[in-house]
Specification:
The complex is a heterodimer of chains A (300) and B (424). Chain A is mostly helical and 300 residues long. Chain A folds into two domains: 1-28; 39-294, MetI-like fold (Orthogonal Bundle). Chain A has helices spanning 5-38, 56-62, 65-98, 103-115, 118-128, 135-142, 157-182, 186-194, 199-210, 212-224, 235-240, 255-264, 269-294, and strands spanning 41-42, 51-52. Chain B folds into two domains: 29-140 and 303-375, Periplasmic binding protein-like II (D-Maltodextrin-Binding Protein, domain 2, 3-Layer(aba) Sandwich), CATH 3.40.190; 142-301 and 380-423, 3-Layer(aba) Sandwich (D-Maltodextrin-Binding Protein, domain 2). Classes of the chains: A mainly alpha (300), B alpha/beta (424).
Amino acid sequence: MKLKLSTRKAIWAYVFLALPLLFYLGIRIFPTLQAFQMSLYDWHVQADQRSFVGLANYTRMLSDQRLLQAFRNMLWYGLLGVPAQLILGLTVGLMLHSIKKFRGFFRAVFFAPYVAPAVAVSWVWSLLLSPHLGIVNQVLWYLGIDPQPFMTSPSQALPTVTFVVVWQFLGFHVLLFLAGLESIPRDYYEAAQIDGANRWQTFKNITLPLLNPTIVVSLVMATAAPSTGMLQLFTHVMNLKFDDPGGPLGSTLTVVLYTYQRAFQAYDMGYASAIVVVLFVILLIISLIQIRLTSREVEY
Amino acid sequence: MRTMKTFFAVALSVLFVAGAIAPALAQEPVTIRYWQYYYDTKVTAIDTLIAQFEAENPGIKVIHETFPYEAYGARVAAAVPAGQGPEIANLFYGWLPAWARAGYLQPLPIDHAEIESEFVPMVRAAYMNGEYWGLPTGVRTLALFYNKTMLNAAGIQEPPRTWDEFIAAGKAMAIKRGPFFVQLGYGFGPAGQDHHLIREILLRQFGGVPYSDDNRTVLYNSEAGAKALEFYGSWQLTHGIGDVEFFPGRATYRDGFIAGLIGMIVDGSFAIGTIRNGVGDNFEWGVAELPVFDGGEPHNFGSFWMNGLTPRAFESEAKLEASLKFLRYITSEEAMKLWLREVGELPARLSLAEDPALASDPVYGPFIRSLPYSHATFFVDEEGQRQIMVDAINRVLLQGVDPAESMRIAAEEEQALLDAFWSR
């Protein structure tokens, strides 16, 4: 049987597309579904020794104080970190957009932390913020300000982690906003100028609405994306307080870190899976709400 | 039709070749895997032992794989269920309940009487549900490491023997510049060894016991418990001999000691190699038995990493035989002598632990002399139970919570954890 050239081409295209799809299904989707199943069992290596426990792993979460603390922390990380990333990202993006000289240089400066490994970033910051030996407190003291405990204090630790994360990922959001700003046609601004709009009106009625797709991406990435999202922090929390991850007193503990501890230190896979399922549902709902609330078609 | 013919031809030739190779394969050496977490001196020691073992047993090949401590549990958890892991795994004795329950370990097919007559009593902590689940090469106790150079510079010639002397020495060595410590008398390590120091040492020295005999009931919500935590907290809060957050990084108290910024730390015999290599000729240091209260009795915390068999070792007769042979080899007297030299962990065999030459060694002596009065906490969830005591310490040091109240909270949390484990 002879196939037409175009048909053969299409078949090959599908074959090539199928490979990454299979990989994605096998590596991401299948384990996700497996977590749902595992969450209903008391875990054991041998399948025949796993006992079905129904929703026991889920009800157990309600009385797990450390987990509840991790969820409360997650809320604070989100409330502090997400607006900070967006507002600072947009502000810096606007400033970079409005300068001509050294723009590339500044863009590189803001983007550099993003390409640095999170582990290295965390360790460098933990040295800088070390209460007795770190340079930050030495400078504060020199300026006549009381030295701060930073990661040693249950009340300062979470904001400190948030600061480091925002510092690292700011460049990513700046870049997103810069690209968004570049894509707004100049004609709109010229038209607004002719109509006599002031800078705030221009920003409010042209820049902001046309940046909407960028804001959606930035918001979802800052909130729920693995590794950059404020609700899925792990690496920074682990490495900023290496001798007591999630501490002091659980004040920086995240749901992801706690899940890791349950799964790979206590080998409590069933319970860890149940936590992951709940986190998955929460993140899914938050992302959907965010997309629904912020996505708008803009027509002029 | 032609394709069918080709298929059969290929299939037949594959079968033929396989048939020819199979007997040859059977005479190939048995390969077993040994896993441990990466600890410099332990890696070198095991490599040496493997080389000797393979020379003596040409039919067995041992592959040695290591992982960072933080990733070790995850690697085992991922590999064993997939049939990819080691035949022999090295694990902290406190992980035994979790590992055994999840099926990562199998009981040792070794006679109990043999183990009990030849190994130090502490090894009993590897016994659970009527079975032994692993054997150690070395065991560890704690002692006081002190910077001799710093101590002498502070006008003190002998290491402290009582807690009063310990506090006096700490005060003499601590130096502050403005609000910042530049040198500590004592290096706090709540998540390092200090949670053991409170649970098994100070508390017992104050006359308490941390757990019931069957290890299922927490008993440290007591006067002795409160006193132990209060006394420990007073080193920072009252006497100012150090600060819980001083040297940044990982094993902060030990690294700070090596850097020459901390006068004294409580650490295990396993740290000897690291400290010796790290300090070099920078300053003189020494080891002393842990202090006691004036006229009080000594107590110590004992622990060990043990070698256990995973389900993989039981996949075939040949593998089991090879795995057991290797396990016996790395827990032999010869291996223990090498282990003491290279790693600094104490011999787990009675024949060596009672050796007077070792007990009088200036560095190993204090640890070996502590063996008779050492207690190994029975952990069901080592990480979880450590966290509870670390939090108890931090409540007192960082939040100013009353030690008795902090101990009460910890006891309640740990009891809930124990109950949950045993009721499952």
